[in-house]
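Fig. S4 source data, part A: sequence.
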Amino acid sequence: MAAFVGGNLEQLATLTTTFSREGDQVERLNRSIDANLGQTQWTGLVADEFRRRWHEEFQPMLVNLHDALLEAARVVAVRRDAIDQATNLHGA
């Protein structure tokens, strides 16, 4: 029995757009927090710990999420186009 390969073209296009849009939003969030954190006068142990964690943990995770979403958008778009082409070839 062959595995199903395919998808709803409209839904895949929407998913591509969502991944791309939300990836951009993650990048904006990252830049906004980083800029505000850098411009805010905040001292003490809690401030130092948050800044350390921001730079070592949180910010890299946001960068990874951004990259993963944009890569997923690219992959879904390629797959959607391949399904569209295969469907049109079989329908011809």
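Fig. S4 source data, part B ends here. The chain has a mean pLDDT of 93.
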